[in-house]
Amino acid sequence: MLTPQSLTIVKNKAYFKRYQVKFRRRREGKTDFFARKRLVVQDKNKYNTPKYRMIVRFSNRDIVCQIAYAKIEGDMIVCAAYSHELPKYGVTVGLTNYAAAYCTGLLLARRLLNKFGLDKVYEGQVEVTGDEFNVESIDGQPGAFTCYLDAGLARTTTGNKVFGALKGAVDGGLSIPHR
């Protein structure tokens, strides 16, 4: 019978010679590479078309929303919005709450569509009611800007602030698949 005394874990030179460390950003607890791989890989029949992600990150004092796509050299940020910009638009307090996440997503959507010249075509939801809203492409016009939500390491539970930013971006005129 095996006893705890006979099961000694050997960590000698041979063990450490063969030990492979995880990626740096995994060790730092910043990147979920399992999820990132699925968000970044583009279908092969789409050739060089970038696959856009809406990145939402939270710190203790700020909310960051970005639209990015991956290249070999690194991720390219197309557009960004921060909750510390909201006082310019009249929101002065509570810059990390659910409402601020919604406003930051809305600001990102309008800023991005303005950059691509789609802000007049896709105005988003004019009368905000909280009901489900999906942007659909208009015939004879460029298609709606489509991207995918990148929640990072945040727990995607019901009521998470990540979904507040998602709702703001969708109401702002972005096409983001969600249910």
UniProtKB/TrEMBL annotation:
SUPFAM superfamilies: Translational machinery components. Transmembrane segments: none annotated. InterPro entries: Rbsml_uL18_euk_arch (IPR005485), Ribosomal_L18 (IPR057268). Keywords: Ribonucleoprotein, Ribosomal protein. It holds the Pfam family Ribosomal_L5e. It comes from the Eukaryota. GO terms for cellular component: cytosolic large ribosomal subunit. GO terms for biological process: ribosomal large subunit assembly; translation. Signal peptide: none annotated. GO terms for molecular function: 5S rRNA binding; structural constituent of ribosome. Belongs to the universal ribosomal protein uL18 family. PANTHER family: LARGE RIBOSOMAL SUBUNIT PROTEIN UL18 (PTHR23410:SF12), RIBOSOMAL PROTEIN L5-RELATED (PTHR23410). This is Ribosomal protein L5. It comes from Oryzias sinensis.
